[in-house]
Amino acid sequence: MSVTSRYREAWEGFWREAPDEQGAVFWDAEPALTVARHLALFEPHLTEPGLPLVDVGCGNGTQTRFLADRFGQVLGADLSAAALDHARAADPEGRAAYRELDASDKSAAQTLHAELGDANIYMRGVLHQCEPDDRRPLAETIATLLGGRGRAFIVEPSQAAGAILKELATSPSGPPRKLAPVLRHGIVPGAVSDEAVPGILTEAGLTVLTSGTLPLVTTEHTPDGTRIELPSVWYVVGRAG
């Protein structure tokens, strides 16, 4: 199975138009406010920190580069070739490697696992962007890449975040400047309920080791200057059995 051409083209169009500078994209917050907070929750559960680490849905690589400064082998993987062009341009020293990956494609996941062996995974805000039929295959890809030894940190906007985004999108003055391109390209957060996510993970052969809530920081602000933060739920998972 692989993603629809519409979905792929939406992301390609978005990233082709996206500015190069860090912070210009709605979710591209500085690592100190995103992945650094997540690592504080994730690292205590890593049984083998020396495994390769895959940043699934890496986008322009802002968080990937932070991870590459802390782990020995880091791979940023994304569906969009245009996103990876941004990531490579922002990483001229090659601190991380980058790979085009359709994370709903079982054979692609198996090929990557054969190359890397078991890996740890960081994934931020990918599941809720998937079309419904791609959610289970995405979770199965995570299970494949983890193998028997890896751990994954998954963070997703909660249901409450969907209401906030809907309110922003339908504001009488129009959506915020950085949210508008997301909507224009048809990249609309899916309605994944908080209760559904653990089931999706479990059905794919994963075990939720721990979970919690945390604000998901964006780069956008309200008219009064307040930074927009979205409620999120995070999970640390491993392969069942």
Write structural notes for this entry.
The chain is an alpha/beta fold and about 240 residues long. About 35% of the residues lie in helices and about 20% in strands. It contains 9 helices and 7 strands; from the N terminus they run ααβαβαβαβαβαααββ. β4, α6 (about 130-145) and β5 (about 150-155) form a beta-alpha-beta unit. The longest helix has 15 residues, at about 130-145.
Which key features would you list for this structure?
241 residues; seven-stranded mixed β-sheet; globular
Short account of what is shown:
The protein has 241 residues and is α/β, with parallel strands linked by helices. The protein has helices spanning 5-17, 35-42, 62-68, 81-89, 106-116, 132-146, 159-169, 180-184, 196-203, and strands at residues 53-56, 74-78, 97-100, 120-124, 151-157, 206-221, 227-239.
